[in-house]
Design brief:
The structure is a single chain. The chain is of the alpha/beta class and about 425 residues long. The protein has two domains: about 260 residues, TIM Barrel (Alpha-Beta Barrel); about 70 residues, Arc Repressor Mutant, subunit A (Orthogonal Bundle). It is built from 19 helices and 17 strands. A nine-stranded mixed sheet has the order 9-10-8-7-6-5-4-1-11, with helices on both faces. A three-stranded antiparallel sheet has the order 12-13-14, with helices on one face. It starts with a helix and ends with a helix. The structure holds iron/sulfur cluster. Iron/sulfur cluster binds next to loops. Iron/sulfur cluster (SF4) binds next to loops.
Length: about 425
């Protein structure tokens, strides 16, 4: 246990040349979440897209030269191999590799296959569940073809996350997507043809001009395709995006709160009637198909982030990589750490994160595990605030777990804001 601060510090120093790094206090040294850390995940970020969607605030760039993309993939592979040699990684087993973006399906397939092979080889992915390791790739429907999907399968990808967003061409146009509903249907068919048995579709609601009927049609088309998993997100207006400008100018016809809530409930109704369990506020799965990688985030587990703009979080240290892909390449090839910021998270902050992230899941958080990990309980930490949320029936305590009620889930943002 005493090794924790040293381990965390050395983990950060793997990347950091300068960092915000407060010394852990005595209590933190005695109560090390490291002791309870389970297996970890790896996230690899591909910051390239065909076109920038007007609502998107992710680290992603359009119209990037192929040469830069290729050099980026080589740098990413180099970073994976370097990171795998670090003492923290060498003592860790990994359960998942998630390749997200951006649009990972816009880079050279061979370089992507080399990167996946290098990760599977360099990190210890000793099986921790029958389907382990879970290797997910995000794709956009119009960026894939059969040969490409086949190659991904051969490279070890066993879960496909398709950025569908809507099965209404009108809505896809409104939100600036470059694919059609038919492209989505075709992408699912091709993925099945080449043997994918774990497919997730992303859908969005609360879109400009969208009504319940339009949303219902999208949900029903999605379930007809029988994906194993569905992520259902409300459109959020992020600062510094074209949509934020349009909202400021009063030019975006967004559904009001009541309509958005009724769309959220409609998703819950339709999907649960079709055998999908809501296991997180925005995520639904058939039995056994919950996302291993995402559950690790919600359980506040450790993960290594590779690529520009990616975040790593392990042993109480959070590290943000350089966002600009070209600077990222230059740093990696120049043997520099691609660091933007590193911070040591105090134990109180980790506790609150574990509560807030855990409450996103329908199972909630285990109170006894929190006590074991952090030496504190929600009751002791939050006092009256927690009592109030319990009295308002937005939270409930059952079988030693704290979780959102059905009503609490509808108001999740407000509940979380009180627990931050
Ligand atoms: S495809 Fe995804 S990552 Fe790329 S711009 Fe659109 S929303 Fe952002």
């Amino acid at each position: 246990m005493e090794q924790w601060p040293a381990l965390a510090k050395s983990a950060a120093e793997c990347w950091a040349s300068k960092m915000v790094f407060s010394k852990p206090n005595k209590k933190q040294q005695q109560l090390s979440p490291e002791t309870f850390e389970g297996h970890a995940g790896i996230y690899a970020h591909i910051p390239f897209c065909q076109a920038k969607c007007p609502y998107c605030s992710f680290v992603s760039y359009q119209d990037v030269d192929t040469n830069i993309k290729n050099r980026y993939m080589q740098a990413l592979l180099q970073q994976a191999q370097d990171m795998a040699k670090h003492p923290w990684s060498r003592t860790r087993k990994f359960h998942s590799l998630y390749i997200g973006g951006g649009t990972p399906s816009t880079v050279d397939i061979s370089l992507m296959a080399d990167f996946i092979a290098a990760c599977l080889d360099a990190f210890d992915f000793t099986a921790v569940s029958p389907k382990s390791p879970e290797v997910t790739m995000e794709v956009n429907p119009n960026t894939v073809n059969k040969a490409m999907l086949k190659r991904f399968r051969q490279a070890g990808v066993n879960r496909l996350s398709i950025g569908t967003q809507s099965f209404s061409d009108a809505m896809l146009k409104v939100i600036g997507r470059k694919h059609s509903a038919q492209d989505c249907i075709q992408a699912v068919k091709l993925a099945r043809d080449v043997g994918f048995t774990n497919i997730s579709l992303d859908l969005m609601f609360g879109l400009p001009g969208q009504d319940r009927e339009n949303w219902q049609n999208s949900l029903e088309t999605a379930v007809e395709l029988a994906p194993e998993h569905l992520s259902v997100y409300e459109l959020t207006i992020e600062q510094s995006t074209p949509f934020a400008d349009q909202v400021r100018l009063g030019r975006l016809d967004l559904p009001n709160e009541d309509l958005s809530l009724s769309m959220f409930e409609l998703a819950r109704e339709i999907l649960s009637a079709r055998g999908y369990e809501q296991y997180e506020i925005s995520n639904y799965a058939r039995n056994g198909f919950q996302s291993v990688h995402n559950v690790n985030y919600w359980e506040n587990g450790s993960y290594v982030g590779l690529g520009s703009g990616a975040v790593s979080c392990f042993s109480g240290v959070r590290i943000q990589s350089e966002k600009n892909p070209e600077r990222f390449i230059t740093m990696i090839t120049g043997q520099q750490k691609p660091l933007k910021e590193a911070e040591f998270l105090p134990i109180d902050a980790r506790f609150r994160e574990s509560v807030i992230m855990g409450l996103r899941m329908t199972a909630g958080v285990s109170i006894s595990l929190l006590e074991k990990q952090y030496g504190m309980t929600p009751e002791k930490h939050y006092g009256e605030i927690l009592e109030l949320l319990l009295n308002q029936e937005l939270l409930e305590e059952k079988h030693n777990r704290l979780r959102l009620t059905k009503a609490g889930m509808l108001l999740a943002n407000r509940v979380m804001a009180q627990l931050v």
